């Protein structure tokens, strides 16, 4: 499934939006002393198993890193995803 991931700064989250504009999933974050902490990921049940979580993970990490932010991940889903995508392991802090 194709989704667009965009930062919703007012809600402190990144949102995966489908072609109709519906929010398929999100990653919540908080900024603290120059670090973006990614602490919770959720995908709507209607979108489970369609690659939304993976698209969110990759695009959220890419956007935060491209913005020059230090990234710390405590979200279990994102931690597991990074474990399967080692190209991100040296770019973020886990735990």
Automatic annotation (TrEMBL):
Domain N-acetyltransferase: 1-95, 6-93
PROSITE patterns: GNAT, GNAT_YJDJ
GO molecular function: acyltransferase activity, transferring groups other than amino-acyl groups
Key words, A-Z: Transferase
Membrane-spanning segments: none
UniProt-listed InterPro entries: Acyl_CoA_acyltransferase, Gcn5-rel_NAT, GNAT_dom, GNAT_YJDJ
UniProt organism field: Nocardioides iriomotensis
The protein, known as: N-acetyltransferase
UniProt xrefs under Gene3D superfamilies: 3.40.630.30
Pfam families reported in the protein's UniProt record: Acetyltransf_CG
PANTHER family membership: BSR4717 PROTEIN, PROTEIN NATD1
Keyword Metal-binding: no
